[in-house]
Specification:
alpha+beta; 2 domains; three-stranded antiparallel β-sheet; 2 helices
Length: 84
């Protein structure tokens, strides 16, 4: 299969000039990410993380396994990974 030479991210001008760059030089640009690059990054994060990483025990030695999934921290970590 031929490698995709398109950049992972591009930034398009928010005015009518219709120009795009791979390195924005002002805040007037809107960031776009290739769908396949986004999916690949999300899958990488899912492969390397599990809900056990975010599971917090209610009591330290609870043999029945009762606890809480810290969804907020999990979402924050996922968001950080995707933004890089």
């Amino acid at each position: 299969m031929k490698a995709n030479k398109a950049p992972e991210k591009i930034w398009m001008s928010d005015d009518t000039e219709a120009i795009w760059v791979t390195n924005p030089y002002s805040t007037r640009f809107i960031e776009y990410t290739r769908t396949d690059a986004f999916i690949e990054k999300a899958c990488e994060w899912l492969r390397t993380h599990s809900e056990a990483d975010y599971f917090e025990q209610i009591t330290p030695y609870n043999y029945c396994g009762a606890g809480n999934l810290n969804k907020k921290r999990m979402i924050e970590d996922f968001e950080k990974h995707i933004k890089v």
